[in-house]
Design the sequence.
């Protein structure tokens, strides 16, 4: 399994350790030990803020001023079987670094230019907090995974009641390990039967809705051309 992890923080803190625990459990479930992991850390690997210039929407993602940083992350996501987004809770939401990446990737949403490579992938959102805000933070990342069109989207949310991983209690660490093991098994099973699972109802509904919208699209020829080139406006379906 090819795995890409995009970390919304440079710190190897509680969130990173939770994601790492899941990866280790996934490695144990791979009899051939062939899991390939590519890891990005923000803002190191994508430092630029979205300028709201709409270049990615109207001219294509290559026209983004930060394309040199965004493109390698997109390529890694395209090639992965499992896409992992991680962020600790910062002010009841994802880190600024993660949010700016998600802003840059809005061109991949179903309402613009959905990437067919996403439709058979598994997504995972991972977050921890010393206090509150887990639900909203995980939802921010999971929403992007869903609107990119992944087939399965999982989440791992864990309160740790500590500012540093070294301060996390043994009881909480034990709970994290058990949750990581159970989630890794679910992800492994989802990957094994990916081709046999029915299409998510929401994704099918959203795709049909966006196809209808694109048929009347006279405001963005770049988006419309993306849909036309794949035959989606003529009734073809990618899943």
Sequence:
């Amino acid at each position: 399994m090819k795995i890409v992890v995009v970390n919304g923080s440079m710190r190897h803190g509680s969130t990173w350790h939770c994601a790492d625990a899941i990866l280790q459990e996934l490695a144990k479930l791979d009899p051939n030990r062939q899991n390939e992991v590519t890891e990005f850390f923000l803002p190191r690997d994508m430092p630029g803020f979205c300028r709201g210039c709409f270049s990615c929407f109207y001219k294509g993602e290559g026209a983004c001023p930060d394309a040199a940083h965004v493109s390698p992350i997109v390529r890694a996501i395209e090639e992965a079987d499992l896409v992992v987004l991680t962020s600790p809770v910062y002010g009841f939401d994802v880190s600024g670094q993660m949010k700016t990446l998600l802003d840059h990737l809005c061109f991949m949403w179903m309402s613009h230019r959905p990437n067919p490579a996403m439709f058979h992938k598994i997504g995972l959102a991972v977050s921890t907090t010393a206090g509150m805000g887990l639900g909203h933070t995980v939802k921010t990342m999971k929403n992007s995974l869903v609107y990119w069109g992944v087939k399965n989207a999982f989440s791992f949310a864990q309160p740790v009641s500590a500012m540093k991983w070294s301060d996390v209690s043994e009881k909480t660490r034990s709970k994290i390990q058990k949750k990581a093991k159970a989630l890794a098994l679910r992800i492994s099973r989802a990957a094994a039967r990916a081709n046999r699972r029915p299409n998510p109802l929401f994704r099918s509904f959203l795709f049909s809705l966006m196809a209808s919208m694109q048929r009347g699209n006279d405001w963005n020829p770049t988006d419309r051309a993306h849909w036309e080139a794949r035959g989606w406006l003529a009734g073809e379906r990618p899943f």
